[in-house]
Automatic annotation (TrEMBL):
Gene3D superfamilies: Winged helix-like DNA-binding domain superfamily/Winged helix DNA-binding domain. Pfam families: HTH_34. InterPro entries: WH-like_DNA-bd_sf, WH_DNA-bd_dom, WH_DNA-bd_sf. Residues 18-93 form the Winged helix DNA-binding domain. This is Winged helix DNA-binding protein. Keywords: DNA-binding. GO terms for molecular function: DNA binding. The keyword Cell membrane does not apply.
Amino acid sequence: MDELDPVIHAQSRLRIVAVLAALDAGESVTFPRAQELLDMTAGNLSTHLRKLEDAAYVEVTKTHSGRTPVTYLALTTRGRRAFEDYTDSLRTLLGER
């Protein structure tokens, strides 16, 4: 069995990636909506997003709606593949394959 991806394996990052993986490819979610879905503080979410962004698993896009800043989060193709590999490794570990 391949080693579980340590970037994704941390509980908070696994939850973030799972939420983003539930979106269709190319879709994104706003930072406040992700924060609400994950029940995480802004600081905690930001810290984990930085690690996922550094690994090129998550894309963070900052824009404006009028004068209000809006941050969108999306799983990259690389992040989606990493999550699929991670879940495949878990299935193997659990004897489901």
